[in-house]
Amino acid sequence: MNKKYFIAVGLLGTLLLGIIMGCNSGATTQPEPSNQGVAKQDIKITEAEKIALGKMIFFDTNLSEPSGQSCASCHTPEAGFANPNHTNPTSEGAVTGLFADRNAPTIAYSQYSPEFYFDGIEYIGGQFLDGRAATLEIQAGGPPLNPLEMHNASKESCISKMAKASYAEEFKRIYGQNIFADANKTYAAIGDAVVTYERTSQLSAFSSKFDAFQKGKATLTTQEKLGLDLFIDKAKCFICHPIANEDLTTVPALFTEFDYDNIGVPKNPNNKFYTLSTVYNPDGVDFVDTGLARNPRVIADGRVAQTRGMFKTPTLRNVDKTGPYMHNGVFTTLKQVVAFYNTRDSDPTKWGTPEVAENVNKDFIGDLHLTEAEEDALVAFLKTLSDGYTKP
Ligand code: HEC
Ligand code: HEC
To answer: Which ligand 1 atom sits closest to the C-alpha of 69?
Structure first.
């Protein structure tokens, strides 16, 4: 946290404002997506085809058991690549009545999360809210087999469905005629194709009103501008959701450094995962999501105590479309989220105790003295972060 604070202080002042105001042209250069683990010459030949294939797999509702659920069911483009069902706090799987333990996050911009690592002070990066899949490639193999998601009993069961898909021939052409004979190789190929799609600008468009504003191509309303000012000043949001990248030049703001914090989110009594049978949830209503402390690498490193309750800081891009909010979906509106940051500590009875009491961040959150109008302005600013802005 100290590290962040110093970065924050270093950023404050004319430099930060300069970037926010779009004076630094470098700040708006779109980064090249990386293609970890894929041979360079391979990309040259088939990248566009791999993207098309990966997209078909991503949207294929025949790969679940029973059929009907694809990756896109829980990560829909129109919903900011999060779950379009804004009522359930956490996602329902392919099997009716089985709910994931966590709220499906946006996967837009997840390509920029670095491979999970410990920097000497804190953990950074990885996929999932606890970073337990070190990379996107590793992540992609999870959902088809997860009983609370696509629910296939085995790799083979998912692959036999894929072998019948309309794109099966294309799959073999790209990854080899015998690819379906080896389950592990098929899974690696699925990961490769899906991740090639996930790393495209289709998922990281940088096309919000805020981006247009930074390029000098849009004007924020008075309320949105006030929200931006509060975001970097009185409300201190940018300390964890930075508005410029650490090197201040190459990447437009991601609104996260993919590090971890416990912000004291309360339990969500409406989380349907609590009602699942002991097969899926041995703790029943007493289930506590300890976040980063569940990551096997963190457990092996012996850092459970100091990571309990921490979750990966999410990007705020498209946040207007991705409700409900937080790892357990406890908040349904952005207004509630902002009110929580504002009065978590000054009005604790309103919010209840944190799901995990240890490691709660008290430095920048909880008693911000924002007025109602300032809370509204912050919400208005957050709404400028949705991709697909077109000039009215
Ligand atoms: C039933 C809903 C559901 C389905 C289907 C689903 N996901 Fe997810 N996804 C989730 C949830 C919930 C999480 C967060 C889980 C966690 O943190 O433990 C998640 C997390 C992710 C993440 C990590 C994002 C981040 O910021 O950490 C990626 C990437 C992802 N999913 C991609 C996929 C892909 C690819 C598929 C299809 C192969 C898929 N998902 C299918 C619900 C779903
Ligand atoms: C100390 C770091 C920190 C600060 C300061 C902070 N956040 Fe967050 N924010 C997080 C973390 C970590 C989460 C995820 C917590 C969870 O899921 O339990 C989060 C989640 C959110 C979410 C929910 C996103 C989603 O997809 O569920 C929103 C919205 C948000 N923050 C906005 C803000 C705003 C606005 C401010 C300033 C008033 C702010 N944050 C200040 C760390 C921080």
So the answer is: 5
- How far is 77 from 85, CA to CA, in rounded Å? 13
Contacts 24+ apart (CB under 8 A), 55-60: 55/197, 55/202, 56/165, 56/166, 56/167, 57/162, 57/167, 57/190, 57/193, 57/194, 57/197, 58/194, 58/197, 58/198, 60/162, 60/165, 60/167
The whole-angstrom distance between residue 371's C-alpha and the CA centroid of its chain comes to 29
Q: What is the pLDDT of residues 349-364, one digit of tens each?
A: 999 999 999 999 999 9
Q: Nearest-5° angle of CA 306, CA 312, CA 316?
A: 145
| pLDDT, tens digit (0-9, with 9 covering 90-100), for 269-319 | 999 999 999 999 999 999 999 999 999 999 999 999 999 999 999 999 999
How many angstroms does the Cα of residue 17 sit away from the middle of ligand 1? Answer: 35
Q: Is 75 in the pocket of ligand 1 (CB under 6 A)?
A: yes
Ligand 2 mean position, distance from CA 314 (Å):
7
Task: Tell whether ligand 1 has an atom less than 6 A from the beta carbon of residue 134.
Answer: no
Q: Closest ligand 1 atom to the C-alpha of 127?
A: 27
Q: Contact, 320 vs 385, CB < 8 A?
A: yes
Does any ligand 1 atom lie closer than 6 A to the CB of residue 104? yes
What's the gap in Å between 129 CA and the centre of ligand 2?
A: 13
**For 371-374, which contacts have Cβ atoms below 8 Å and span 24 or more sequence positions?**
374/226, 374/230, 374/234, 374/235
